[in-house]
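Is this the right way to post structure tokens for a design question? Let me know if I should format differently. Anyway, here goes:
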């Protein structure tokens, strides 16, 4: 159990914590300046047109495609945690 001295210290700590909480809330809610509106020019997205006709050119058609990879029949070792 808490004796009288510990109860008094606990009350002081709780009061100080509540005061700090109130001070932070007052500062954040009432004392912070309002945010200025962001100009719409910052959100301007230019119109981008991509010409996909280059995919039909001879240089692109002549490119070699990747070889198809084959997987080995067996994976890993019988005892994977056994040292080499």
């Amino acid at each position: 159990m808490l004796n009288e001295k510990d109860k008094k210290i606990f009350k002081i700590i709780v009061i100080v914590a509540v005061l700090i909480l109130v001070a932070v809330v007052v500062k954040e809610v009432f004392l912070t300046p309002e945010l200025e509106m962001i100009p719409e020019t910052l959100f301007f997205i230019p119109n981008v047109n991509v010409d996909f006709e280059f995919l039909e050119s001879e240089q692109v058609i002549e490119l070699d495609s990747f070889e198809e990879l084959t997987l080995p029949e067996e994976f890993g070792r019988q005892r994977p945690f056994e040292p080499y």
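Format looks fine. Someone answered above. Worth noting: Residues 1-31 form one domain. The first helix runs from residue 4 to 31.
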